[in-house]
Design brief:
67% helix, mainly alpha, two-stranded antiparallel ribbon, 5 helices
Length: 147
């Protein structure tokens, strides 16, 4: 539990930054995006359904909402707003998962922007495999830190 307390600020800073990446990326890219963007990818990884570019706002909003809910679950709001330094039981899990989930959403948002701009064709399968390994490694890391 002591290591988690030490890592809290770095984890929070990384998670917050990753929650902002999709918002900032989309704001910067908005003017250069076509009116139609990929909305779904088939089994081959190629787009098989298209939608208006306003649908790209789903991921940035999702990133902020997930960050907010995971911050509540990890006690971040109480920590930042009320100065409560204690880490409640189970708060380590959302604290560790917050940056990992933020990374997935940030990558997905960047990937969609690149594909919409015709700078890429399909999602990177290696990243998704690496993400899954990172997601599975988080509980392992938590069990090592907790004991």
């Amino acid at each position: 539990m002591g290591l988690i307390v030490v890592l809290r600020w770095p984890l929070e800073i990384v998670a917050f930054g990753l929650a902002l990446v999709p918002v900032l990326s989309l704001l910067l890219a908005w003017g250069s995006l076509p009116s139609q963007i990929p909305a779904h990818f088939g089994p081959t990884g190629h787009p098989d359904r298209w939608s208006s570019r306003s649908q790209l706002w789903i991921l940035p909003v999702l990133a902020l909402v997930v960050y907010g809910f995971m911050s509540e679950a990890s006690g971040t709001w109480a920590w930042v707003l009320d100065g409560r330094m204690d880490l409640s039981a189970g708060a380590e899990i959302p604290l560790l998962f917050k940056p990992v989930v933020g990374l997935l959403i940030a990558y997905s948002s960047e990937m969609l922007i690149r594909i919409a701009r015709k700078q890429g064709e399909v999602p990177n399968g290696w990243f998704m495999c690496g993400f899954m390994m990172l997601l599975l490694a988080s509980p392992l890391a938590l069990s090592v830190v907790a004991h």
